[in-house]
Amino acid sequence: MPDSHSAAPTNRERAERGQVSTLVGIGANIVLVLGKGTAGVVGHSYALIAEAIESGTDILSSGIVWLGLRTAAREPDENHPYGHGKAEPLAAIMVAVALVGAAGYIATEGIRHILTPHQLPAPFTLAVLGVVIAIKETLYRRVHKIGQEVDSGAVKADAWHHRADVITSSTAFVGISIALIGGKGWEAADDWAALVACVFIVYNAYHIFRPAFGEIMDEAPPRAWADDIRALAQAVPGVVTTEKCFVRKMGFEFFADLHVVVDGSISVREGHAITGAVKAAIKQARPAVYNVLVHIEPF
Questions:
Q1: Segment 93-147, tens digit of pLDDT
Q2: Where are the beta strands (DSSP E) in 122-169?
Q3: Which of 21, 69, 90, 164 could cross-link 204 (Cys pair, CB 3.0–4.6 Å)?
Q4: Where are the domains of the chain?
Q5: What are phi and psi of 134, to 5 degrees?
Q6: Architecture of domain 223-298
Q7: What is the CATH number of domain 11-216?
Q8: What is the per-residue pLDDT for 257?
Q9: What is the secondary structure of 205-265 as a DSSP string?
Q10: How far apart (Å, rounded) are the C-alpha atoms in residues 226 and 244?
């Protein structure tokens, strides 16, 4: 069941928190692109170069997330009476597409390196990967926590970018270790690690894409939302029961369509008053619900 907070953050406040976490990730990724790219070239490790490429797409996708969050936080206007919330899942979908594109490029270059003889990676690249794993896991935990707190698919997608880096860096660490232990003839282990990393990247892209696409298609949120809204409505004096209840998520907010059953002998004015009371009760208890369309049914 959704949590209730007496002082829940507003749509704009949640968007701002998401934007700050995204900007921190962008700054970290700029540093990591330079570090991993340089170490990969100097240390003859394509797995590290692939890591740098993936971090480069992280910068682009995080920028998309930041823009999506800014747009989603805008107030409704004449052209967008329901607000701009769908900019947030759209940003998440674009992140997923960017990840797949990066995986395709890394896989193509990895195969080329496997077919082309090259040097063993330098041992120091393992230390670089160790630092990368520590930084990225810290960023993942921080951003994912914020994504859960503000209930943002785009911020969670940004967090999964960091977790994807942890996975691919760990895979690269194993590949380079095998190459160094095996010695001459095992140079390609590093490149095979990059190919394995592509599988994880595509998996994470799907993990990001699926819920964002569902939100764009007005997929119903977890059933607890509808059950909770029904319970809040039925607690309002004058409400006999509820019938249909449809809920959809748009960015940071939820919209509900609810059929409420009342005594058929009451006046239109009394029915209207019950409608207002139902809306107020739901929006007060669940601030994330932006609007409730209540239809009165006679009993």
A1: 888 888 888 788 878 877 887 887 767 778 888 888 888 889 889 988 988 888 8
A2: none
A3: 164
A4: 11-216, 223-298
A5: -65, -45
A6: 2-Layer Sandwich (3.30)
A7: 1.20.1510.10
A8: 94
A9: HHHHHHHHHHHHTT----HHHHHHHHHHHHTSTTEEEEEEEEEEEETTEEEEEEEEEE-TT
A10: 9
